[in-house]
Specification:
The protein is of the alpha/beta class. It contains 12 helices and 13 strands. Helix content is about 40%, strand content about 20%. The strands form 2 sheets. It has a 7-stranded parallel beta sheet, with helices on both faces. A 6-stranded parallel beta sheet has the order 10-9-8-11-12-13, sandwiched between helices. Helix 3 crosses helix 4 and helix 7 packs across helix 10.
Length: about 350
């Protein structure tokens, strides 16, 4: 005897290889074992997401992929309307503020839909956004506190803290842990945008000399791609640009630490958890929402000054102590093992879904 799964709409605005895309993919795969068949609806999908079953493309943006389209929004609502009727959807889970607005409009057409919103990133204008549903998930305690503080009528909403979860790959071999490095190699993974601190990282790289025996590899795509290419060409081999990489951690044994120079509030970045899962420590800027994840001189380094001098000094110090980096990386993997297991995240989200269905 088979049990019919409950269909759930996972709604986002655009997916471009970042943490939200990874999150939705994990939900689609993991929640199927817990009685929920997740359908992803979004714009600009990766080939991996689009190739999977249960996916609906939304034409939310113009041809440039950046500007929102009023006509595209209306066409998206029409597609979602047909999907709700076809699948008899009861739950809609929004993963961006624009997606939450789309969900709000869709609920006007289908009042029986029960919405939930996951806060992945803190915004300074949280208070002015009026479309938050009653059920809200925050991926970190820091985000939950910010949401409660800065969002109007947050007392009428049910906040759940569900940490992002990560599947653990096999641990590094003992040979990798004790390998003597001729050069210390750092990795940056993410969108190539100013908010991610790319110019800070490029300026810091420009201060590194070949005698420092440091290499920096950048993997990603975005508006600042040309700036990265030009910086790499002028770096005398210190900086390397790999472009977009579908599996940026598939060769983590080649890297000693992850660089996370983001300048804006982040929720609980998947890229940090991925680095920890692969026993890589993290060098990060000092951001409030990151403080519960990156512990200074325990799982990596927190750089308290957002300038190139501080970052270049931190890179040199880290490169001079490869054994310390190994210890920090092992501590990071323990953080994932103890606090960010994928099964734990999936079960907590399933609890929220069941609670909504029972309301």
């Amino acid at each position: 005897m088979t049990t019919q799964s409950t269909p759930v709409l996972l709604l986002s605005n655009r997916l471009e290889g970042g943490g939200v895309e990874r999150h939705l993919k994990d939900l689609r795969e993991g929640l199927a074992e817990r009685g929920f068949r997740c359908i992803i609806a979004a714009a600009c999908p990766s080939a991996e997401i689009a190739a999977g079953r249960n996916y609906l493309h939304l034409p939310l943006y113009r041809a440039d992929g950046r500007s929102k389209s009023i006509g595209g929004l209306l066409r998206s609502l029409q597609r979602l309307h047909h999907l709700v009727r076809k699948e008899d959807l009861k739950l809609i889970h929004a993963h961006s503020r624009y997606a939450m607005f789309v969900a709000f409009l869709l609920r006007l057409m289908h009042p029986s839909l029960r919405p939930v919103y996951t806060v992945h990133t803190a915004f300074t204008d949280m208070r002015r956004f009026p479309f938050y549903p009653r059920e809200v998930i925050c991926v970190s305690q820091a985000l939950a506190e910010m949401f409660a503080k800065y969002t109007a009528a947050s007392s009428r909403r049910r906040l759940s803290v569900v940490h992002n979860g990560m599947a653990l790959p096999p641990p590094r071999s003992s040979e990798a842990d004790t390998w003597e490095h001729d050069m210390c190699s750092f990795l940056f993974v993410g969108r190539l945008v100013e908010q991610k601190g790319l110019h800070l990282l490029l300026d810091a790289a420009a201060q590194i000399k070949k005698s420092d025996r440091i290499s920096i590899v950048i993997r990603g795509s975005g508006p600042l791609e040309q700036s990265v290419i030009e910086a790499a060409e002028a770096s005398d081999g210190i900086l390397r640009f790999d472009g977009y990489h579908p599996d940026p951690f598939d060769d983590t044994g080649a890297f000693d630490a992850l660089l996370f120079p983001s300048l804006q509030l982040e929720g609980q970045p998947y890229v940090i958890l991925e680095a920890y899962a692969h026993s890589m420590p993290v060098l990060s800027n000092d951001l409030p929402a990151i403080q519960e994840l990156v512990k200074d001189r325990i799982t990596g380094r927190v750089i308290h000054s957002q300038d190139a001098d501080a970052w270049s000094a931190a890179l040199r110090e880290a490169a001079a102590h490869p054994g310390t980096l190994n210890r920090w990386g092992s501590a990071g993997r323990s953080v994932v093992e103890q606090q960010h297991r994928l099964d734990t995240m999936l079960e907590k989200i399933a609890v929220v879904y069941r609670r909504l269905l029972e309301d």
